[in-house]
Amino acid sequence: MDVKQLRYFIAIAEEGSLSAAAQRVNVAQPSLSQHVISLGRDLGVKLLERSPRGVSLIQSGEVLLSHAREIVTSLETAVESVRQSGAEPMGEVRRSCPKLSDDGQCPPSGPVGHLD
Amino acid sequence: MDVKQLRYFIAIAEEGSLSAAAQRVNVAQPSLSQHVISLGRDLGVKLLERSPRGVSLIQSGEVLLSHAREIVTSLETAVESVRQSGAEPMGEVRRSCPKLSDDGQCPPSGPVGHLD
DNA sequence: TACGATTACGCGCAGCGTAAATATC
DNA sequence: GATATTTACGCTGCGCGTAATCGTA
User: CB within 8 A of A57, min separation 6: which ones?
Assistant: First the structure.
């Protein structure tokens, strides 16, 4: 069970259609189809019903949806607070520059804040 | 960012050692090393310090740890409720939430099955 | 015919394990 | 030398996209 699947599922639930959700999350429909099948199999429940026009959530799907939203939100909150807690940013800061110096180097950089 | 990485990170934090954590989660040490490096890179933050005897969390790591525990718990709860939502009566229920909104309220709840 | 989901199939990459290297005691 | 992490490297499986197939109106 993966957060990516939860994101996909939220998109499907909100769009009511695999095709629309696929566009929204930039993934091909077959991939989403596979994910939702796999998700249902992992949970041992049927999550949604196939309608001639798209899909619609059934009870278990609604339950999953609310939890999924909560979890995804928690995750985003977590990332945000960890980033802001960073007294010690790490890694090299790579930057591009619009114009190289004559010696082919980037001009010296000024003070840099955190990356968004 | 993946839940698996959060589980791994929790194990590392609690064991204080990559080797011990690796045994606990049944993964080779190098794999965990890669994961924690990747996690730190994704977050743009240094999470722990290498000691000659294992590793120890620094501030950002502690922040991540608490969030990670919360998220993993939420995920397990979610799986449980979805599984049990199969044939259970449903309706609005009060629920606890791992994190209050800024105004001190629980985030809005959706329809759910019963909680044990 | 048109729209949407599923099945089939091939490819690339992420994650894993083994093994070798590095570091600290 | 012992313990613990990191680097190197090959392999397998998962996730994705394309294309073909099925279902319904």
Answer: A13, A47, A48, A65
